[in-house]
Each structure stands twice: as C-alpha cells, then as structure tokens.
Amino acid sequence: MFSCTIKGAPEHPVAKLSGSLTLEHSRKIHTELLALLSQAEVMTIDLGESDKSDLSFIQMLLALLKDPDKKIRFANLPAHLLDNAARLGADAFMAELSNRTGKSA
C-alpha cells in the first residue's frame, strides 16, 4: 500500500509518503511528486512513514535530483532507503540526500 499526504503552504508543500515505495506504486509516486513540483518552488519529501523501498524509488529520486530547477528537501530518511542505496554503492546519492535534509515547513 502507498499513500501521499500533502501538508504545508502551497509554495512549500510537504509530501508525506507512507507505505511501500516500490515498483508496484512507482507510477502513482511519480505522478504525485511531479504534480507537486510543477506547482511549488520548494518541496519537502517526508519519508518517515514509509516501510520499504526498492531500486525504482531510488532511480526516481535520482532523476528528480538531477534537475537543477527543482528544489527538493527531505525529512525523516528511513533506514531501508539508506540501506538500499548502500547496497547499490550509491554513495553520492546518499550524500545528496543527507545534504538536503533538515526541518520541513
């Protein structure tokens, strides 16, 4: 199961992703995130209530982070995401996520 709850101000929404961040839900996750990014200058993605992730989610985040016009921050990075990135040898990805964490609005 996957769900996305939006909180915060319209100019800086916080997307709280809950449940499984896996291939099964990748189309819905991608659609939700792109819709928010098209409407806001800054967005925070809160991953604290997610229970698992896979390569498809990591690839999605990598693609979003490559766009210099998108200002994305992260809150509550879960161990499963960092463990998956470590298994893939994605050190630069983990560093980028860590650099973008902080207090969400």
TrEMBL record:
Pfam families (alphabetical): STAS_2
Matches recorded under InterPro entries: MlaB-like_STAS, STAS_dom_sf
MlaB-like STAS domain sequence ranges: 16-91
Name under which the protein is recorded: MlaB-like STAS domain-containing protein
Organism: Desulfomicrobium baculatum (strain DSM 4028 / VKM B-1378 / X) (Desulfovibrio baculatus)
